[in-house]
Write a structure and sequence with these properties.
Elements: E1 3-8, H1 12-21, E2 34-39, H2 42-55, E3 59-64, E4 71-78, H3 80-92
Antiparallel strand pairs: 1-2, 2-4, 3-4
Helix pairs in contact: 2-3
């Protein structure tokens, strides 16, 4: 089961936290209209990342936990409508290409 949340118009401090926890993959000029957060088992987050990138022109990064090897969630950033569409597709399980065997 995935936990999914969205932040519309993320505050500068929120973006600073996401930048720091993602290894600064997003520079300070990157100010998305929305950020979707997805948390769950690693296998589900990798599939969620694939779905998001195939759905819309969003930026996806992993957000690390207390040690660099511990990925605890994904951040999907971009236009609000695109982020929302990605989150809906993730909830639905994508296009069937990533179906359970």
């Amino acid at each position: 089961m995935l936990d999914i949340k969205v932040i519309k118009a993320p505050a500068p401090g929120t973006m600073a936290i996401l930048r720091q926890r993602s290894g600064n993959r997003w520079n300070e000029e990157f100010l998305p209209a929305a950020v979707g957060l997805v948390q769950g088992k690693l296998i589900d987050m990798v599939v969620a990342s694939d779905i998001a990138e195939k759905t819309a022109g969003v930026e996806v990064t992993d957000i690390r936990g207390s040690c660099p090897q511990n990925m605890i969630l994904l951040a999907i950033a971009g236009d609000t409508a695109e982020v929302m569409e990605c989150l809906e597709r993730i909830k639905e399980g994508g296009d069937g290409a990533n179906a359970h065997l």
